[in-house]
Amino acid sequence: MKAAVATLRDPATIRTRAGNITAAVKAGKSDWWIVDESQIEAAANKVVEVTLARYPTLAIPYHSRWRHFEAGGVDRAAELATAMTGLDRAAQARARIDLAIVSVLLDAGAGAQWSYRDDGLDYGRSEGLGVASFRAFMAGAFSSDPANPLSVDGKALLKLDAAQLGSLFQVRDDNPLVGLDGRAELLRRFGQALIDRPQAFGAGARPGALFDLLTDHGARREIEAAALLRALLDHSSDIWLAGNSLDGEALGDAWPHPLAGGEGGSTGWMPFHKLSQWLVYSLFEPFEWAGITIIGRDALTGLPEYRNGGLLIDAGVIALRDPAFATQQWKAGDALIIEWRALTVNLIDVIADRVRALLKRSAEQLPLACILEGGTWAAGRAYAAELRGGLPPLNIVSDGTVF
What we know:
Layout (H helix, E strand, L loop, with lengths): L2 H6 L2 H16 L6 E3 L4 H15 L10 H4 L7 H8 L5 H17 L9 E4 L2 E4 H14 L15 H5 L3 H7 L11 H17 L1 H4 L8 H6 L6 E3 H12 L8 E2 L2 E2 L3 E3 L12 E3 L2 H16 L3 E3 L10 H9 L3 E3 L8 E2 L4 H25 L8 H21 L6 E2 L7
Parallel strand pairs: 4-9, 11-12
Antiparallel strand pairs: 1-10, 2-3, 5-6, 7-8
């Protein structure tokens, strides 16, 4: 792999280049955004308020797909554990990794009109997507092996089309899901990646084989969060629909921007890897439940999506130079969106430090994954509910894979 591409897969690069863009915005070099640092305290206070309401004892879990499996107060993780009775720790870890990965790949914004009914309750947005993907997994929809339904494999994903996915997710004319075709295509592309890379995903072409790859079949008892992200990006960056590439290598969620900086061939690229980082956060628990320690958790960044980014807009930390921009439609590769996401990465770190100070917790006691959960994502959602009935602050054309 070329060094320039490896640089763009390093979460340290995400932070550095987000800092470059933030500094340029603060210096007045942006056509789109301004920063008001005086509002950071208000944003931090909102995060603290929401965090204490949700987790009054500050026993905060990771911001992870597993939280969505708990929607409606239902312990679906326990349901899965019961279904896996008799499997050893490694086999259970593989199944949980399978579930988490396929579910996160389906996790881009659902739109305001879609919901999923489970046990008499309706779930929308991320919770609905989580519950729907959980039910599909439990039904064996992502497995081609009838003897092992609680798994995901490339052969099954290759056969999954939009109509089948829509049926699994209860999509109808009166219950539309944003980006349905894009989601189905993403799963098929991932299925092909699973098949094409047996060195990572094994002869069975399973995502869960990452457990064996990263732990040397369980012999290694700790792994770095950044190494987990690198493994995902090295072996699946070509699944993303963005089509961004450098020197013939797929980059995924990385975008050219003149203010990003950098050196060598990667100059001018702003990487985010939002869904991949969300996926790593969602894999912390499957590895930990198998007795593997995740080290360097805060090497990962805040997730640059419309809840965390919306928190910054709604709290007044950042503002559009022209309010009319909020009424226009934008794509992930537009400069306005790239800068918004870079500001989100940088300023969520600033807010996180202030939240820790207000709650009198260290970074070890309150890692970023828990601040996101407590937290910034929930505060962004609360603002959106108060101000726009839950809608994002910007109009983004989504293919169901980035936002």
